[in-house]
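Please predict the structure of the following assembly.
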Amino acid sequence: MIITITREFGSGGRTIAKKLADKLGYAYYDYEIVQQIAQESGFAKEYIEENGEDASSTSTFGFIWNNYGYNLSDELYVAQRNVICELADKGNCVIVGRCSDYILRDRKDVLNVFIHADFEYRKNRVVSVYGQNEFAPDKRIKDKDKRRIAYYKYYTDRKWADAKNYQLCLDSGVLGIDKCVELIEKAM
Amino acid sequence: MIITITREFGSGGRTIAKKLADKLGYAYYDYEIVQQIAQESGFAKEYIEENGEDASSTSTFGFIWNNYGYNLSDELYVAQRNVICELADKGNCVIVGRCSDYILRDRKDVLNVFIHADFEYRKNRVVSVYGQNEFAPDKRIKDKDKRRIAYYKYYTDRKWADAKNYQLCLDSGVLGIDKCVELIEKAM
């Protein structure tokens, strides 16, 4: 069984995924995906982390071409897609983000979960988990949301927070992290 | 505690709501709302059923004015809103549809649930539950979806299937009716 966790920035989706994997004894794939892509594709880990699930913050077009007109964003997407398919083939796991719900859409053994929370909850969580930086938490969240929605739309042609893409959507701000873990476990 | 169930036509959301209310010993408001609105407003029950949560199928504008330019759709919405607020004040209950999630948005004791399912599941269910009629199930579902989405958008200015409007969204086609009841109970 494979569980994909698509999550809003600051919603605690990653923590939920980790706790769930630990509880179930499932493999947990998050930074592991970055490492394996780096190994297989030659992209730098920092580049993958920055551009692997959010549209670019530096390119006006949102996606990145090199000087020869080659589309690096697409190349990264394909590398990522291949790694996610390989990891899914290994068996029981929890996969965080990176359009994994869409990438694994033809498998029958996948439960797709979307974690979201209201803006205030995410603001507090972003500061407490990631700390302060030069940008106000409002700006950080709005920027991340915009880039993540654009990335998801571009590579999946789906709407990001559309309940119909997932079997289970949970408001972690209201329900709490541990309750979300329990509900996903029960839904399986 | 109040639970609102917003549901796609044919998803089994009404059955889930009824089972949940029975299990919890909560009041269940669905046709009761229609009866009370009829009593308080003078609208015919059939009119309320036809126009209380779906945009009109007969008016080109989707909403209905009488010959004096009076907006009947708005009048029905207000009557409905008042009845839903009154029922919510009575205590523990499950309320089906009619923008109740939006109407009760300022209360702190509400759990908003969205039930959806894929098209094939809903097609089969519509025929088995409501029987055949002169229209093919495809057409019936598409028509209902369109009218319900338009109604919800008009009166709430929200997107119908947006996960962020609900604390819990469930795919009844994949999870099954009874599992949905259990998950809602657990989320409370």
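The longest strand of chain B covers residues 110-116. The radius of gyration of chain B is 16 Å.
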